[in-house]
Amino acid sequence: MSPSISLPMQSQRRSDAPMAAYQINPDRSTKAIRIKKICCIGAGYVGGPTSAVIASKNPDIQVTVVDYNRQRIEAWKTDDLPIYEPGLLEVVQAARDGNSPKQTPNLFFSTDVDRCIAEAELILLSVNTPTKSLGRGAGHASELFHLESAVRKISAASESDKIIVEKSTVPCRAADTLRDVLAATAKPGLHFEILSNPEFLAEGTAISNLLNPDRILIGSLQTPRGLEAAQALANVYGAWIDSDRIITINLYSSELAKLAANALLAQRISSVNALSAMCESVGADIDEVSYAVGLDKRIGSRMLKASVGFGGSCFRKDILSLAYIAESLHLFEVADYWRSIVHINEYQKNRFTRRMVRCLYNSLTGKTLAVFGFAYKKDTRDTRETAAITVVDDVLTEGANVRIYDPLVKETQIRHELKSTTARLDCVEKQLTVCTSAYEASTGADAVIILTEWDEFSNRGEPVRRDSGHGRKTDERAERKVDWTRVAELMRRPMFVFDGRNIVDAGALEELGFRVACIGKA
Ligand SMILES: NC(=O)C1=CN([C@@H]2O[C@H](COP(=O)(O)OP(=O)(O)OC[C@H]3O[C@@H](n4cnc5c(N)ncnc54)[C@H](O)[C@@H]3O)[C@@H](O)[C@H]2O)C=CC1
Ligand SMILES: O=C(O)[C@H]1O[C@H](OP(=O)(O)OP(=O)(O)OC[C@H]2O[C@@H](n3ccc(=O)[nH]c3=O)[C@H](O)[C@@H]2O)[C@H](O)[C@@H](O)[C@@H]1O
């Protein structure tokens, strides 16, 4: 084992410390680089919240988030932030506006990428790494174009040494690519140290994940300069995270660990969704099965909720990237294994629509479906890869009139997502209505389809109080749960509910006259 990393002694570990093996050795004699200015390239779901939390916890460090998307940067300067995350606005305001006595403004947003790169000692790369859409590996490999162009910018604008941190999710050995570009293009004599520091936040809980992460992973070359850079980054996180949660490992292990984490999380969902298909045939209940297996501490209860299928910008692309890497290493069986997670996810979405069509007498022509929720999960307005795109596209093609209501997602975004996916643009134009309430969506509908697990759609539990992200409630309507009695009054008979998230109490809805189909329940 390298002398620069150490296994924490049992006695040094807190009782709730993670089980991970490696951590920064507090006795290490590496010299610490003091970071005064950080530049984060990419003002998206990762760059914005991560920079805001780093700035709020490090009042002495100036953090500037840069992006070439001027509209996004301008929105970050207002209170109408470009992304919705519970608690985000408060953290941004504290650091950006300096409205607490302890903090002067130290969080900035800018399109002046060159200047901010030149001034920073540490640069966070938080640009998008989508699935390639062109050429070799299209539909499978990660597109590193944005990462490479950001690094070329760094190279051109730098007059001093930099620590460059991969926060974006990247294929293994992406750091070598970045190093190669820098070696060929940067001014002679400059040194660039590349670190891998993958982000594990989940949307909807980003701020709590960032404030209290399970672990911070820092991958570096095991050279004196690599370790020195890792220590400098660890010090930034050390402002609010205990050292036993800051883990330093080999650069390439860190890159792979991020892909592995997402693949394993998605694998749990696909496993449960595969079981849900069996439950529907054998008369078992998937919620009971998940509960029963999750009580085994080796399995654990999280990420075992059956659904219409996972969405979001990352699971699919990261699994496909992992499979592509395996295939390029001639590990074809390994590639097939990972890809099967995505196949089951597609199967689950199609299975959901097939069941719906079957229940609605094998024809959706002329029927009206009320869709509750379009975001890929609750507490976000992100719709990337949401299962709702596939389901809505399918039912539009089957001839249904679709009335969508989502508490946060705007009509323009819903139409944009559907238009960029469907082969039947005319269906989107003629058969789709975006509504401003669940009641408007339900009017005259034959069925309600729940596609996002927003609390307000559930007929269980307490009334909803949602933080708007603006420090006040969104509006009166959003504070109440959907009144299913009123929904029933508005619908055509017979009335169906297809619950793609298993959030309703089916028995209570059946008492109101609904016929209810849940995932993984006969
Ligand atoms: N969205 C999420 O919850 C998570 C995402 N990730 C990873 O983080 C990375 C970023 O993801 P998101 O923040 O969701 O992406 P995003 O698409 O929301 O944001 C990326 C931003 O980078 C900007 N950008 C791209 N190239 C640029 C360049 N050369 N110069 C300046 N700006 C540039 C884009 O304009 C965009 O605003 C991805 O690799 C993703 O896999 C990791 C963990 C969680
Ligand atoms: O790399 C990323 O982008 C991130 O991807 C996921 O985060 P995210 O996609 O934001 O949200 P999740 O809570 O993981 O949910 C993903 C999808 O799976 C679905 N899901 C989740 C959990 C579950 O039990 N069942 C289920 O169907 C959700 O509804 C959602 O559509 C991971 O949880 C993060 O750790 C990771 O950083």
UniProtKB/TrEMBL annotation:
Catalyzed reaction equations: UDP-alpha-D-glucose + 2 NAD(+) + H2O = UDP-alpha-D-glucuronate + 2 NADH + 3 H(+)
Keyword Oxidoreductase: yes
Pathway of action: Nucleotide-sugar biosynthesis; UDP-alpha-D-glucuronate biosynthesis; UDP-alpha-D-glucuronate from UDP-alpha-D-glucose: step 1/1
SUPFAM superfamilies recorded: 6-phosphogluconate dehydrogenase C-terminal domain-like, NAD(P)-binding Rossmann-fold domains, UDP-glucose/GDP-mannose dehydrogenase C-terminal domain
SMART domains assigned: UDPG_MGDP_dh_C
Family, as annotated: Belongs to the UDP-glucose/GDP-mannose dehydrogenase family.
The protein's name in its UniProt record: UDP-glucose 6-dehydrogenase
